[in-house]
Amino acid sequence: MYIEKGELAAAEALNRQVLNEATSDDFAVMADAMLNAAELSRLKGDFHEALNKLDRLQQKSADNGQTLAPELIWNMHTERARNFAGLDFVPQARHEFDAALLTAETARRSFIKDYDRLTYVSQLRNVYQSYVAFLIDRKLTGEALAVAESSHARLLAEKLNRTQERSSFSGFASIARARNAVILSYFTAPLRSYMWVTTASRSEVFENDGEAAQ
Predict the structure, then answer these.
(1) Which of 157, 189, 150, 196 is CA-nearest to residue 173?
(2) How much is the pTM?
(3) Is position 126 within any domain?
(4) Domain residues for 36?
(5) Neighbouring residues of 39: CB distance < 8 A, sequence distance ≥ 6
(6) Considering Cα of 148, then 152, then 158, then 160, what sign does the dihedral take?
(7) Alpha-helical runs (H) found in the chain
(8) Which distant-in-sequence residues (6+ apart) come within 8 Å of 4 by Cβ?
(9) Tens-digit pLDDT string for the chain (214 aa)
(10) Most buried residue, 24, 55, 90, 154, by CB count within 10 Å?
(11) Are 24 and 64 in contact (CB under 8 A)?
(12) CA 92, 93, 98: angle at the middle one, nearest 5?
């Protein structure tokens, strides 16, 4: 909550207290706190330190013989991706975003309760939002559209309890060409929302106010 409110000093103090009080029997709690510490470093702009903290978390789990929960694994991939994005390491960031989505899709099959799936969808939406924003910032408009539509498809697949395939820009362009039409696509997020206008030959994106401004 402190992180969401931008009160990083308070968040650091509380997270440090958790790390100091956690024992070896509380590895899940410690792991979450170490992930928080990496996020706090990133939010302060120290991307290399954040990546080092993520490496230490992974090493600690290996040293203790701990198996990380799938949710923690995909959050680690996402956090690495955000740091690589901050460093403008484009291939590495894309690799980590894709790894996060793959881990989440694999973990989905183990969810039985509706509550677990609803929580999963909510958390996964944050991954998609970061991925779409990252691609748009690099002018990768068509690929951002494909990821955004994959997010919509995954949500629909969850409601129907099915798997889904990744969309592609070429698919949208083909539909536009076959029907001599212009396709409008939307993707909303708290801070930045987007609208794509796709024709037979190209896709252009326009940025709109985020959900928080509505």
Answers:
(1) 196
(2) 0.82
(3) no
(4) 1-68
(5) 3, 50, 79
(6) negative
(7) 2-5, 8-21, 27-43, 47-63, 70-86, 90-108, 114-137, 141-160, 169-179
(8) none
(9) 999 899 999 999 999 999 998 877 788 899 999 999 999 999 999 999 999 999 999 998 888 787 788 888 989 999 999 999 999 999 999 999 999 988 887 776 665 555 556 667 777 888 899 999 999 999 998 899 989 988 887 776 665 655 555 555 557 778 888 888 898 999 988 878 999 998 888 888 999 876 655 4
(10) 154
(11) yes
(12) 100
Angle at 189 between CA 188 and CA 193, to 5 degrees: 55
Q: Is 87 inside a domain boundary?
A: no
Number of domains in the chain: 1
Cα dihedral angle (69, 103, 90, 150), rounded to 10 degrees?
Answer: -130
Q: Could you tell me if residue 112 is inside a domain? A: no
Q: What angle do CA 32, 33, 39 make, to 5 degrees?
A: 90
Q: What strand order describes the sheet that includes 183-187?
A: 183-187, 192-198, 203-209
